[in-house]
Amino acid sequence: MTNKQESISRSLYEIRFHGRGGQGAVSAAALLALAAFDDGFESQAFPKFGSERRGAPVEAYVRIGRTPIRAHNQVYTPDAVVIQDATLLRSEPLLRGLKGGGVIVLNSAQRPDDIDSDRDDLRWIVLPASRVGERLLGRPLPNTVLLGALAAVTDWVSLAALENAVTNHLARKGDAVVKANIEAVREGHRLALELKGVHYEELEGHEEKK
Amino acid sequence: MRKLLEGSQAVAEAVRLCRPQVVAAYPITPQTHIIERLAQHVADGELEAEFINAESEFGAASIVQGAVAAGVRAFTATASQGLLLMTEVLHNIAGMRLPVVMVCANRAVSAPINIFNDHQDSMALRDSGWIQLYAESNQEAADSVIQAYRIAEACELPVMVCMDGFYLTHSFEPVELPTQGAVDEFLPPFHFARTLNPATPMTLGGGSEPDNYQEYRVLQHEAMENSRAVIEAFDADFGTQFGRSWGGLLDGYRLEGAQTVVLGTGSLMGAVRDVVDRLCDQGRAVGALRLRCLRPFPARELVGRLGSAQRIIVLEKALSVGAGGIIAAELRAALQQAGITTPVESVIGGLGGRDLTPDVIEAVVRNAGPDEAGVSCRFAPQVAVHHEAHEEHEE
Amino acid sequence: MTPELAFEPGSSTAYHTGEWRIAKPLYRDKWPPCGQSCPASEDIQGWLALASEQQWETAWRKLTERNPFPATMGRICYHPCEQACNRGHLDSVVNIHAVERHLGDLAIANRWRHAPLDELPKRQRIAVVGAGPAGLSCAFQLVRRGYPVTVFDAQKEPGGTLRSGIPAYRLPKAVLADEIDAILALGIELQAGTRVGREISEEELRDRFDAIFLAIGTQRPRRYQGDASSHSVMSGLDFLHRLNRGERMVLPSRVAVIGGGNTAIDVARCARRLGAQVTILSPQDPPVNHLTRRGTEMPVSSQELMEAESEGVELLYRVGVRRLVRSGEHLSGIEIAHVDQVHDRHGRFNPVLFDGTEAFVPAGLAIFAIGQQVEWQGLEGLSQAPESERVWIGGDAGGSPRFAVAAVGSGYQAAMSILTALQDPAAPFAAEEKPHISFKQMHLEYYPARPRHEGRVIAQPLDGFDETVQGLAESDARQEAERCLSCGVCFQCDNCWHFCPDAAVIKKGAGYEIDYDYCKGCGICVQECPCGHIDMEKVE
Amino acid sequence: MDKRDPFRHNVLTSGHRACSGCGEAMAARMVCDLIGPDAIYINATGCLQVFTTHNQQSAWQAPWIHSVFANAAAVASGVEAALRVRGKDTPVVVQAGDGGTFDIGLQCLSGMIERGHDVLFVCYDNEAYMNTGVQRSSSTPHAVHTTTSPPGRLSQGKHHLKKDVISIVAAHYMPYAATATIAYFPDLKAKVEKAMGIKGPRFLQVLSPCPLGWAHDSALTVTVSRLAVETGLFPLIELEHGELTGVMRLAEQKPVEEYLRPQGRFRHLFGNGEGAAELRHLQALADARICRYGLLDAATEWDTQSAMQSMRHGRGGYVPVLQEEMEK
Predict the structure, then answer these.
(1) Does the distance separating the beta carbons of B89 and D68 come in below 8 Å?
(2) Structurally, how many domains does chain B consist of?
(3) Fewest 10 Å CB contacts: which of B14, C453, D65, D325?
């Protein structure tokens, strides 16, 4: 953990989650913040406020920092964006405010056509998280897979801390759910490591090989 | 141990540690997580209390009123329309001097309907006779609940702990939860002198006449005035025992030598602190003062802290429609009474959940307000300085 | 002033809402119509109340305070109390006499003894002349108060008219004897077979006694003056005397009895028992229910009349005797005519007959039961003496109505008068003045209808003189007593107590008290008092 | 404490400022003394609250609390919950008028019942807002003259029917709901005692005439309440878990006119054609209620006549004050 702390170069990272109601964007944000906190950082997670309606676009935010986080504002200039549903790309400006060099973790089985091509300063991680979720969790839930992937590509949280967060946060849902989600985190982490900088087609092929 | 907790959960845990025996509530966004968590605690046997699902906020307030009158510590929470629906009972609880504690998850009021945060709901109740504490963080919200019970029971005044809806209620933040033992040490067992009891029958809530109603109010007012010292003392006590305190009535930030002071309340003060840091780094003498306690209104204390400022900006998430900023008006009165002529700029912002971003706050501080007489307040500019820039960029 | 957040319990009592009052309720015992109409002034409501609670002996003692003859009166009294009873406005009047008889019979059966009221013996001696109901009543009152009383009677047996004038089927001799014995047992000296002017002189009486009560009754029957012959003509009194002495008379097949009172009926029913066909020629109307009383009714109980009719006695009302129709010496019948007016304007019995209304009633014997007079022979001096000479006259001889119960009442009054004259501390200062109460002041809806219990008429051949009416069973007597409305007399129903919105009625052990500090004078207690015990008075 | 009366506690005692002849004061006194001082009383705003507590003087001799108009049932819920957690079984009793029951208080009442609080809710039904000067409530019967349902050229008083609140309450699968009135103390006593023997929410609607609002002579309060029953306009019924389990049989049905005549609030109906139609309507309403509840032919322990029978030494009353207590 201490070495992790060192690895955070800036005082504050901001992550924005996009999803649809019911996909667990808020939960994912909470898991990420919990993991960071477990790693010894200050962290904060909260949803874009509003009523939670299944299927409607939702946002959630995470801040991870070395000093206590005081502001409670929404995240406008994220360091990373996690997109749980590629269909959102069509309707929402998902990349707004994303800092240069920012990370996009996208849940998609194929490279979407409408990825913003104006920004060439971004790192895209595209992985079929729903499909992995389906396989591991029995339901197409992309959350923990995407978190694993984010951890893999950013170093902002440790895999162990994520697993801890999953264990604690989902404890109420039973051991099987916890175990499966830990698997999902690991799988996302593994996939993202393998895919780092790898193009979509390769990803597709890689997945096929499995 | 510090934990990352949702604000609602932090407050629920704090409530649990205070061992209320009756919890009654009616769900309303954004208060729901608090009562859901408490319901779970009761269901799990972690809180030995009657959890009563009231049929309305009006009922919920009434239930805790009855419970406290019948001799137990009680809790309720609400927001917005729910708080307004409670209004009648809240005045009544205060008038009967019942030590009730509630949490208001601050939210805008209708119309138009809006579930997001501002302070219009609790501000509307500022004259109800309740002590009002506004929390800046989840930690403070939780700690304030614990303090609130001790204040309420010592002063025989109800206490409303206000926490910003969503900004706090739905945010996960690190929170240090005290141990049960420590809370038990801080908070004596519940005692209320006028408990309903057949062994010592008393009549509570009886009628009054023109020749004594005012005296009831005078007593209530005196109790409020006296509660200032109690709030300060218990916060200090809390600091001694738990290693953190919240400034009692007022919480200053970089006030030393500050020529411009931003006065505000609630969670927005976190961003204000960031802005103050930013501006100080740029060499500006800016400080912040957080009004933790709106009632009793710490007029003397405010004068003491703001006396040397040259410019005072009051940033509020509530509007007295047709009058302007509420805190600003009260501050103006306090300063005027103290013979201080520093202008007070009243800025209203963040209504209905609009985010008062650091940039907006900075803009408010940088841009001087209108100095024409008769202008009661101005409104903070729309957020999204960055937002718009990037949208343009993306297109 | 520091206002209190919690008010003390009951602190409102510092505020006297009684000041709001413009009218004021008052508990006031009334004199119920039964007692009011009772010639013996019995507290009928009082003893019925006790009887309803099965406090039989206490009830009997209450009753005998005024009338030591309940078993007798319960049988023979014409019970004006029942005529007056307010219950008639609800369903049917209370069978007061049956309960009275029940009490008397219980007393005899259980050998209850009268108790003296005052153990302290007095030295003044009292003489009572006549051991009839008036004399014995007076003697009873005085002996209970410690006075030595001597009763003189010309007859060998005490009882007066009760013994000689009442047929046994109505009043068995043993019942009367038992009640008289109980009275005498208080220590009365009876000198039977002692007629004043014969066995003892007026002077001796005056010498030996401090007070003298003459209650010699009316021993001389009023005779029919319209016919010179006494053949086939008899007075009711003589008829009954002879019968009560045990004489078995032989009567013609048809007998006419002239008169509208109890004697007439007694005579008629006795004559029926001796085998005659009997017609009563009454100058009065039949007794009707008390709602339509006009003053011209026969002073008899309708029940007795019904019994007579059921025994085959014929009745003709508002008729008077024009003449006796004779065939030689023998009476063949009576010519009657409609009576317009029974009494003249002086109140004297003086019927006026209307011409052209004549009719003939065949009869072989005419028994006139048209009244009796006092026989003052031997008492000429005393009868003229004023009360200042401590001589009192009472009973029938004193002019009271010719009813046993009136005689009892008269005896009581004489006793009270004697006590006053003797300056006895127990003498009543003044007669109790209580307002009367009519059914209109009551709230009859509080009393549900309950049937009246009657004494069973014993079916028997009409040739004996055994008692015809059975007494009530104990449960019936109790239920009958419960039927009493307790007119004007609180029976602690709690209504005023329950219904006072202001807790201004305080229940005491027995009865209630109005706390005028709080009574607002709403009038609910008055309105909801079933028996009219509470009055409302304006507050000035 | 006032202990003048050895035979009852006077939970609601003298010195209160109800109008002369107040039916609600009478009803509350009966009900509270049947329950006794070992209970906690919650009062809605209304006449009863106003006239019993005045200027630091209270006519109550039991723990008593008043909050606001609409919330008595909810305050009671809280009191009951508090007692439950404190391990006490002190009875909790709500007292409210028809406004605090039928109208503004209905929601809290419904919530209290639904949550199953062990509370007896007593509604003293005087059929209008008397406290504020006789305005109509949803309990006001048809054709009644109130200040907000005045008769006039186009009106014969209240246009609407009296709300059937007992059915609404009973429909909550209510353990016990009953109607009663002051005229029949034995009936009221039996119902209060029955209610106090049942756990869970219980409801008692006690018709309590108001001499002021009904405009009858103050002495007629009991008489009028009796006539309300005898005419069939106010059936005395018991409902357990929604089922009709008891009625007070009418010994005889009286014409509604007998009930309406003494009351000024119906005066406008007499002597004109349209009023006559309303009189027939009221009679029809009475007939319908008699029919609905079988008031003329039910087999019952007592009827309107036997239930009011006055008895020597009463028919039993309240819990007497203990001698020791008196001496204190």
Answers:
(1) yes
(2) 2
(3) D325
- Of B344-358, C178-192, C287-301, give the lowest mean pLDDT range: C287-301
User: Residue C11 burial by CB count (10 A; 0-12/13-18/19+): exposed, middle or buried?
Assistant: buried
Interface of D with B in 110-139 (CB under 8 A): 110-111, 114-115
- D65 and B205: CB-CB below 8 Å? yes
Domain boundaries, chain C: 11-29+490-538, 33-114+442-482, 126-219+374-421, 230-373
Task: State the Cα–Cα distance between residues C454 and C470, nearest whole angstrom.
Answer: 9
Q: What is the C-alpha to C-alpha distance for residues C249 and C271, in angstroms, rounded to an integer?
A: 9
Please report, for the domain that includes residue B134, its CATH number.
3.40.50.970
> Which chain C residues have a beta carbon less than 8 Å from that of B201?
9
Beta-strand runs (E) in C119-192: 126-129, 149-152, 189-191
CATH code 3.50.50.60 for C126-219+374-421 = yes
Distance from C-alpha of B281 to C-alpha of B289, rounded to nearest angstrom: 18
Based on the number of CB atoms within 10 Å of its own CB, is C47 exposed (0-12), middle (13-18) or buried (19 or more)? buried
Two domains, one topology: C33-114+442-482 and C126-219+374-421? no
pTM of the model as a whole: 0.85
Is D269 within the bounds of a domain?
Answer: yes
B258 & B185 share domain: no
pLDDT value of position D325: 64
DSSP result, B33-82:
HHHHHHHHHHHHTSS-SEEEE-SSHHHHHHHHHHHHHTT--EEEEE-HHH
Minimal Cα–Cα distance from C4 to chain B, Å? 8
pLDDT at C293: 56
User: Tens digits of per-residue pLDDT, D132-161?
Assistant: 889 999 999 999 999 999 998 888 999 999
| For testing contact with chain B, the best of D69, D85, D89, D106 (most B CBs within 10 A) | D85
Residues contacting C371, CB < 8 A, separation 6+: C218, C221, C222, C259, C349, C402
Instruction: Identify any residues that bridge with B53 across adjacent strands, giving them in sequence order.
Output: B25
- What does R_g of chain B's alpha carbons equal in angstroms? 21
CATH number at residue D227: 3.40.50.970
Whole-number Å distance between alpha carbons of B215 and B131: 19
B226 and B258 assigned to the same domain: no
C327 touches chain D (CB under 8 A): no
Indicate the residue among B204, B223, B242 that finishes a domain. Answer: B242
Alpha helices in C330-446 (DSSP H): 380-384, 404-421
Residues B222 and B271 in one domain: no
Put simply, the chain B residues between 321 and 360 with a CB less than 8 A from any chain D CB are none
How many CA atoms lie less than 13 Å away from D102 in the CB half-sphere? 24
Whether D217 maps to a domain, the answer reads yes
User: What's the pLDDT tens digit per position in C303-330?
Assistant: 788 889 989 999 999 999 999 999 888 8
Q: State whether B202 and C7 contact (CB < 8 Å).
A: yes
Q: Are B59 and D71 inside 8 Å of each other by CB?
A: yes
Q: Which domain holds residue B99?
A: 2-242
Q: In D, residues 17-46, which contact C (CB 8 Å cutoff)?
A: 17-18, 20-23, 25-26, 29-30
Q: Please judge whether B384 and A93 are an interchain contact, meaning their C-beta atoms are less than 8 angstroms apart.
A: no
For residue C498, what is the nearest residue in chain D, using CA coordinates?
D30
Query: What is C33-114+442-482's CATH topology?
Result: Fumarate Reductase Iron-sulfur Protein; Chain B, domain 2 (1.10.1060)
Angstroms from C1 CA to nearest CA on chain B: 8
- C9/B212 CB distance under 8 A: no
ipTM attached to this prediction: 0.85
Domain with residues A2-209, CATH architecture? 3-Layer(aba) Sandwich (3.40)
Beta bridge partners of C452: none
Instruction: Give Rg (Cα) of chain D.
Output: 19
Fold annotation for C230-373: FAD/NAD(P)-binding domain (3.50.50)
